C-alpha cells in the first residue's frame, strides 16, 4: 500500500532514522565484527542501507506488525526481515508520509538485551 498524492499518483514515503536506529546499527556492526570480520560488518551495513532506501519508501507495509515488540507492549512497529539474518523495526506515519526506523538487529541477537543496552547507551 503506497500513499497517493492529490493527483492519484503514488508517492514515496520519507525514511527517517531515529537515534536508537543509528545506535543499533553501530551495535549490529560491532556484533558482526566480533562474530565474523570488520569487512563483513561493513558489507552488511551497505546492504541494509541499499535495501532500506530502494524498497521501503515505496512499500511501507512490506512487513507485519512485530509480534516481538507487541510482547513488550509496543504495538505500532513493523518487523521486516530484510534477509536471512537482518531485521529492521520501523513505524509508518501515514499522515506525514514518513517511515521512522527504530532498530536494526541480527536475528541471532537477543532483542531484550539489545533494547536494554540501547536505553542505557542513549
Q: Secondary-structure element order, as H and E?
A: EHHHEEEH
**Based on CA inertia axes, which overall geometry fits?**
globular
CATH topology (level 3) name: YaeB-like fold
The biggest beta sheet reads: 4 strands, mixed
Q: What is the total domain count?
A: 1
Instruction: Estimate the helix proportion, in percent.
Output: 40-55%
CATH superfamily name?
A: RelE-like
**CATH class value:** Alpha Beta
> What integer value in Å does the Rg equal?
15 Å
> For the residues shown, what is the average pLDDT?
87
Q: Give me the count of strands.
A: 4
Strand content: 15-25%
- Outline the low-pLDDT stretches: 1-9
Strand order of the largest sheet: 1-4-3-2
How would you summarize the topology of this molecule?
Elements: E1 14-17, H1 19-35, H2 38-55, H3 67-70, E2 78-81, E3 86-93, E4 98-106, H4 111-121
Parallel strand pairs: 1-4
Antiparallel strand pairs: 2-3, 3-4
Amino acid at each position: 500500500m503506497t500513499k497517493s498524492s492529490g493527483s492519484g499518483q503514488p508517492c514515496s514515503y520519507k525514511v527517517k532514522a531515529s537515534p536508537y536506529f543509528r545506535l543499533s546499527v553501530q551495535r549490529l556492526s560491532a556484533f558482526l565484527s566480533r562474530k565474523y570480520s570488520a569487512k563483513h560488518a561493513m558489507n552488511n551495513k551497505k546492504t541494509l542501507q541499499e535495501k532500506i532506501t530502494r524498497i521501503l519508501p515505496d512499500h511501507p507495509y512490506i512487513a507485519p506488525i512485530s509480534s516481538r515488540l507487541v510482547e513488550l507492549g509496543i504495538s505500532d512497529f513493523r518487523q521486516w526481515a530484510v534477509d536471512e539474518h537482518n531485521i529492521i523495526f520501523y513505524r509508518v506515519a501515514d499522515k506525514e508520509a514518513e517511515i521512522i526506523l527504530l532498530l536494526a538487529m541480527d536475528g541471532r541477537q537477543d532483542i531484550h538485551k539489545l533494547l536494554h543496552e540501547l536505553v542505557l547507551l542513549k
